[in-house]
Amino acid sequence: MTLLEIFPSLRSGMPSPRVDTTVWPCETHYDDLGRITVGGVALADLADQYGTPTYVLDETEVRRRCQAYRKHFPDAEIIYAAKALVTKSVARWVTEEGLSVDVCSAGELAIALAAGVDPQRIVLHGSGKPFAELETAVAAGVGRIVIDSLTEITLLSALVSRPQQVLLRLSPGIDVHGHPAVKTGVADQKFGFPLGSAQAAEAIERILRQPGLELVGFHCHLGSQIHDPDYYGEAVRRMVGAMARVRDEHDVLLTQLDLGGGHAVAYRSGDAEMNLYVLADILDDALDAACARHGFPRPHIALEPGRAIVARAGVTLYRVMTVKHIEGGRTFVIVDGGMNDNPRVALYGARYDAVVANRHPTGPHMTATVAGRYCEAGDILATDVRLPADLRPGEILAVPCTGAYHHSLASSYNAVGRPPLISVHQGRPHEQLRRETPTDLLTRDLG
Ligand SMILES: Cc1ncc(COP(=O)(O)O)c(C=O)c1O
Asked: What is the pTM assigned to this prediction?
């Protein structure tokens, strides 16, 4: 018997061998029963109270990440990318921490406005913004709109009745070698205009001709899960060069440079993540050099992290439905969620860890594949994870680092409603989103 088994109270507050705080929220501990707690609440209790699967979100962790960005980039505007996860509370927390909000649909805009976000601090994005959404955004008075196409210039100029600040999205031709689905800095993809192209030149001219549109700067977004800060240094050099060309050719001084998001987080122990301290240094040096080279005044920098703000704050809880040892094959742990609440594995081949949350397992472990309940063989949540060999149906598995692009990407495939989102803070749970029920699904069915 170990000391911890004799005196379980020794465990609380100790860094746990089961959890790694580069992947789990900082406020993750053990309670006296050996159960994992986040934000002072036992995950097993949350599973009992709200059912499974359930998204858990640690408010303190979200706020800490916002504070880290403010600290490392004191002169930059930090714009939270709502696409990673947005609820009224999340929008409120990030703005209380001094962040602006980027939205890419009327739905995200409505949530931000309902949370009381100042429209001036909202930036609207999108590769194909419907006219009605542009109309809603302009009527709401959003601060900036990022222009993505020539059509949008026409639509927007027809809509505005007072000057609307806009940024133009450019792709700086930087290949971050990420998953093709999230590689957005290269020329041949659907967003924006290739930097230096004739279409980009035409877009600039057209915007400048519109009295209702005020071109204040350029925007770029290189991709996702980028851990090498040098790519952003290169983006600064190229984008400042493009801003200087606008000054030289049009005698217009652009003052804002939005470098998008894409900062990597660790999904599993040992994964590379973006070092904000190094990124800040690299951006600073690149700005100094590029501005000196072009005799250009230092632009206001904006960064748009989404994942890096909320990913680690999230943990998803599942209940084990069955454990299957396939003869001559793998051991599958089937849980009551899967690709509906976490499509990232199927979409991007993302890798996750999973641990037992309702007890501290002390016996032997097995290697298992955690699979979901949905009718797809590709409905896998985690492969080759170490789980207790005596894992039983009814136990609770927790998957860390699931705060970003989980709820926001979730579906109701097989007519299974989306999970609730429960935030935890100082020992108390708050139901932010309730579970989607069959009645919710039937409400839309007018047949
Ligand atoms: C324009 C833009 N900004 C910011 C983000 C946020 O990226 P991440 O969550 O990887 O930081 C995205 C993500 O796709 C994006 O398209």
From this structure: 0.94
3-state class percentages of the chain: helix first, strand second, coil last, to nearest 5: 35, 25, 40
> Ligand 1: does its nearest atom lie under 6 Å from the Cβ of 221?
yes
Q: Write out pLDDT tens, residues 162-173.
A: 999 999 999 999
**pLDDT recorded at residue 15:** 43
CA 184 – ligand 1 centroid, Å = 10
DSSP string of 284-346, one letter each residue: HHHHHHHHHHHT-PPPEEEE--SHHHHGGGEEEEEEEEEEEE-TTS-EEEEES--TTT-THHH
Q: Which residues are catalytic?
A: 375
Residue located nearest, by CA, to atom 2 of ligand 1: 260
Ligand 1 atom nearest the C-alpha of 146 is 1
Report residue 284: phi and psi, to 5°. -60, -50
Nearest residue (by CA) to ligand 1, atom 16, is: 221
Of the candidate ranges 1-5, 220-224, 251-255, 358-362, the one whose mean pLDDT is the lowest: 1-5
